[in-house]
Amino acid sequence: MREGLADDASLLARLRTGDGRAFEELVTTYQHRIFGVALRMLGTRAEAEEIAQETFLRAHRALGEFRGEARLGTWLYAIASRLCLNRLASGLRRHERSDDLALAQAPAEGTDAAGALERGELQAALREAVAALPEERRIVVVLRDLEGLSYEEIAEVLGVPLNTVRTRLHRGRLDLKAKLERWLP
Amino acid sequence: MTCEEIRELFSARVDGALSPDERARLAVHLSACAECTREWEHFAGTVGMVRAVAPARAPAGFVDRVLAARPRPWYRRLARSLFTPWPVKLPLEAAGVVLVAGLAIMVFQRSPELPASGPAPDASRRDTLHDTAAPPTEAPRPARKSETTREQAREPGARGEADEARSNLAGRQAAPSAPAAVLARLAVEDGAAAERAVRDLVTRAGGEIVARSDEPGAIVLGLAVAGGRWDEVRRGLQALGALRLEDERERSADRVRVTLRLEH
Q: So what's the pLDDT on residue A124?
């Protein structure tokens, strides 16, 4: 994970006592990461917010059952991933993919119009390439290359063997490479 | 290692997950294979592009919306359900309705006169007479019953007779079972003679006249007789004229109250 939670244990202890500020701290800490996973999996901000909110509400309800064996972040990613995959599998999408920028703009490298246009096209190509990945590969790529989880954490989040994570990640990256070939030198 | 086997190591190489031995074999192969080198550069470039994407940010106000949607503690939910405006406080209203209904049933069951009471006083004259004998308000006074009965026999039309008799009857009605009620019409030729005959008949049967009133073309009498003597009184009434019983309930009751219209 990009940012570790050094104080997971004390935060969890406070959460279990019903400390409202602890829950607010949890949401504040993880809101962007959970929202990011949902956005990249579902493609629209409205649906991503809905799933992210549901993730935290489910976590709030299930705090008593959380045994603390996993990190809080891993647990939240697991809830969010399951909700995203269930939503995609259900076919009950309430928001079709739109022009929302599912992938945020890459850091600017230049200011010229041609460069900006090219970056915009690259962002669109990246968005389409990620969106076109099969869902099981997409979630692994998102968790690894966008969220920075380790193989072991991804296996725990998704509840699959380590080798499955490796295979899906590699296949997903090959799919992306095939779609983004023209942007490569 | 074949090119295909080497390319399977690309992901692990990007993630720094190769063993030193695998890493060395990959390096040796890439130094000798231009095709795999180009593939590796494209593979690593692709992963680099994806990783360069800026992190997503949740919309403004997201935390507040989550906190607002968070379930409240049970005691707050209970207070809200009880005291916030309709329709949320419906359970409280329903409980109130049930409570009031329960109290009404309890009061009704504990008041013996209520089930026996008739329609409103202005519904009809007959019912008014019927009702005047009903309310039990005093304890039984058996000693005065015989006095009243004798007095009735001596002065059938005296004022205060009905009140006295009503009071006595009310005392007896404090008994557990309420008197039965009968509504009867008796067609006669001479109303006054018929009234005297009815009074004699009732007195002989141990009963009493508890109310009397005049209406155009009719004298209305309120009779009260013991349930066991009602058949005797009825036969006597049939002998006086054409008797029509319009309403006869609970003939097995201890007391029978009769509203009798002497129509002439």
A: 87
- A23, B67: Cβ pair inside 8 Å? yes
A82 and A41 assigned to the same domain: yes
Eight-state DSSP code of residue B257: E
Distances B184 to B159, B196, B235, B256 between C-alpha atoms, Å: 24, 17, 13, 12
Q: Say how many CB pairs under 8 Å bridge A and B.
A: 111
ipTM computed for the complex: 0.84
Looking at per-residue pLDDT, the higher value among B55 and B173 belongs to: B55
Measured CA to CA, the distance from residue B252 to residue B227 in angstroms comes to 6
In percent, how much of chain B has pLDDT > 90? 30
Residue A90 token pair: 């259900």
Chain B segment 29-68 residues within 8 A of A by beta carbon are: 41-43, 45-47, 49-59, 62-63, 65-67
Nearest-Cα residue of chain A relative to residue B9: A170
- CA B257 – CA B166 distance, rounded (Å): 11
Q: Are residues A171 and A130 in the same domain?
A: yes
B158, pLDDT greater than 60: no
Task: Give the up-direction half-sphere exposure of residue B117: CA atoms within 13 A in the CB hemisphere.
Answer: 12
pTM of the predicted model, to two decimals? 0.56
A87 inside domain: yes
Q: What Å distances lie between residue B9 and A130, B68, B107, CA to CA?
A: 22, 48, 88
Look up residue A146 and give its DSSP letter.
I
User: In total, how many domains does chain A have?
Assistant: 2
A183 touches chain B (CB under 8 A): yes
Q: Please list every residue in chain B whose beta carbon sits closer than 8 Å to the beta carbon of residue A49.
A: 58-59, 62, 65
Reading across the β-sheet that carries B208-215, which strands appear in turn?
A: B208-215, B218-226, B255-263, B180-187, B242-248
Backbone φ and ψ of B263, nearest 5°: -95, 120
Contact B56 A24 (CB under 8 A): no
Using the beta-carbon criterion (under 8 Å), do B54 and A24 form an inter-chain contact?
Answer: no
Q: With a CB-CB cutoff of 8 Å, which residues 30-49 of chain A face chain B?
A: 31-36, 39-40, 45, 48-49
pLDDT tens, residue by residue, A81-95: 999 999 999 876 655
Q: Which residue range is the domain that position A130 belongs to?
A: 112-185
